[in-house]
Amino acid sequence: RDSSTSRGLGDVYKRQQVESFRKIHGNGIATTMCIGNLRSGTQNIYTFFQTKKREALEKGLLYYGIILCFICGAIIGNQCIKYFHERAILISSVLLLLAFIMMFITRDEE
Prior knowledge:
The protein is mainly alpha-helical.
């Protein structure tokens, strides 16, 4: 019984994460899987080399930057658990609060 409850709550969390961050700076982003981001980033880098359009390069680097953030987050999270054990969740909460605040900072469009 506890197993099905935790699986159900996990599914709700996953759906919420997928629906929460669909776009970053107008680009469709997959926040739960890196394969789509890798494909989109590589496609944009390839487009840049073919067309020399700076916008394609910027989009490609955005996708690769997001993948790098995922990797860094996994490494940092693993180290936090190693040293802080169950208190590592507090560090995660602080980082989420900072990300939440950053969502309200407006970026000047050129």
